[in-house]
Amino acid sequence: MFGLSEDSCGNGNVSFCCSQPDNGFNDPLSLFHSEKAVQELLQQTPVQGTDDQHVEFSEALRTVAKALRRAAEGKASAQAEAAEWKRRYELERERNQRLQLKEHSPEEHNDDFNEERTKNSTNQSMLSNHTNKQSENCCINEICSHEILQDGETDSDSKMIQNRMMRKISLKWESNPQTVLIMTKPNSTSVRILCADMVRWLKEHKRLNIYVEPRVRGELLTESSYFNFVQTWKDDKEISLLHTEVDVVVTLGGDGSINVQRTGSPIVPFSLGSLGFMTPFYSQHYRDSLDSILRGPISITLRHRLQCHVIRDAATNEIETEEPILVLNEVTIDRGISSFLTNLECYCDNSFVTCVQGDGLILSTTSGSTAYSLAAGGSMVHRRKLSYDRLACSLVPGILFTPICPHSLSFRPLILPEHVTIRVQVPFNSRSPAWASFDGKDRKQLTPGDVLVCSMAPWPVPTACQVDSTNDFLHSIHEGLHWNLRKTQSFDGPLDQ
Ligand SMILES: NC(=O)c1ccc[n+]([C@@H]2O[C@H](COP(=O)([O-])OP(=O)(O)OC[C@H]3O[C@@H](n4cnc5c(N)ncnc54)[C@H](O)[C@@H]3O)[C@@H](O)[C@H]2O)c1
Ligand SMILES: Nc1ncnc2c1ncn2[C@@H]1O[C@H](COP(=O)(O)OP(=O)(O)OP(=O)(O)O)[C@@H](O)[C@H]1O
């Protein structure tokens, strides 16, 4: 960092000096001198050049000085804005204190109180609860912007907020849900215990039909013959008919447990895994959560999936594909156990995109953007939110195209629009085969000439939100990934003048 100081070596100009090269404006005195120097400089007329270098140097300094002044002005307006927020906060706090006082001695202030209460009826309970908790928990001397945004509301502000709330997406039950499918992570004692408890509660208190996987039914019956009423399926044909029966799916596990279910009914994911990025419901509160879900309405996130086809070079035409595979997170094409670079030719709607030479390529959904793609340097993308009963309101739809360790200085991850079809081909001259895996599973070898075709699947997977799509996403990136976590800079120390 540089400070500005009077030049002692002639010409009456100003020169840069490295006052504290390691930590910049640490000395308030030097900052003061710098700003003073800036003011003086701005008042000077430009140097009548004795030589070109001086003129150029002086012009450069004037530019720097102007930039510094603009920064100082910016700071002043930020300070004014903060003062205004603080003022509104104090006003609201005062008003709430008055209301609380009246609540404690209502006979004294009954009339005023009722009037005030009616005025505040829309947001009163939220505000007073918040204010109490806030002063206890977070903001003793600080201002919580979240709080202030509410208390600073004017009539038109609150209308705007109401409109925004109304745009929140929810799913309403047309008739009471009758049947629930519970999918559980295998080989976990806590999941097994919770599952038995949940099945009992759903049957006795909610009178629901309950489906579980054949493995889980076996486990339940080992525990007690009481669970005889629990239903399951025998074969793939019965699985394919499940969607006609099941109203809601509950998953007990981690993020991977969401990927395994295929019915298309809304999923309520309870967190019994390690990270829990996509599983916002806490198992401890399962009764309250399910109570509210079964009553509806449910705020939902629609998670788009990618539909992947492998077309073998040996196939006689493109229609002859293997069974399509749906992925919620991503399809990965990598080098597998081969030690050679993968060489993958990529096309987007038949236009050549690039040839990936590296460890491989990830084609990810926006839900998967926080999984493998993130680890390979791709962006985190807020997934798409839609409603069942309204037209789609799309936020950030797309397909992420993220290379894995590309051996190139200029390859960067891309986000392609959701409507494209991507083809990835292992070229005939490739030294080795590649491997495709789907949500981290089901590896398939791709030999030279084989192609993987990938596009957005028409039907998304609805998952229930704890609060709403945005709130859950932000909660997950903060709590799950500790995104942008840094110790807060201390208040003491040098200040801008
Ligand atoms: N280097 C990596 O980060 C890496 C490598 C292989 C696979 N994976 C991911 O693992 C996924 C499979 O998950 P799994 O649970 O079946 O296997 P797993 O148990 O091996 O999970 C890997 C981790 O990824 C997390 N995860 C999964 N989906 C996520 C999502 N959408 N957002 C944030 N985190 C997510 C899981 O919570 C888990 O901690 C694959 O789809 C792939 O994305 C990541
Ligand atoms: N019902 C199920 N049937 C078959 N496999 C399942 C089932 N539920 C989960 N799995 C698989 O078991 C593995 C681990 O499950 P899951 O991701 O739910 O738990 P976790 O790894 O402990 O949690 P997290 O993913 O949050 O770290 C995943 O690969 C997942 O696909």
From TrEMBL:
One of its GO terms (molecular function) is ATP binding. Residues 97-130 are annotated as: Disordered. InterPro entries: ATP-NAD_kinase_N, ATP-NAD_kinase_PpnK-typ_C, NAD/diacylglycerol_kinase_sf, NADK. Residues 120-130 have a biased composition (Polar residues). Keywords: ATP-binding, Kinase, NAD, NADP, Nucleotide-binding, Transferase. Its EC number is 2.7.1.23. It is an enzyme of class 2 (transferase). Residues 97-119 have a biased composition (Basic and acidic residues). It catalyses: NAD(+) + ATP = ADP + NADP(+) + H(+). It comes from the Eukaryota. One of its GO terms (biological process) is NAD+ metabolic process. Belongs to the NAD kinase family. This is NAD(+) kinase. It comes from Hevea brasiliensis (Para rubber tree).
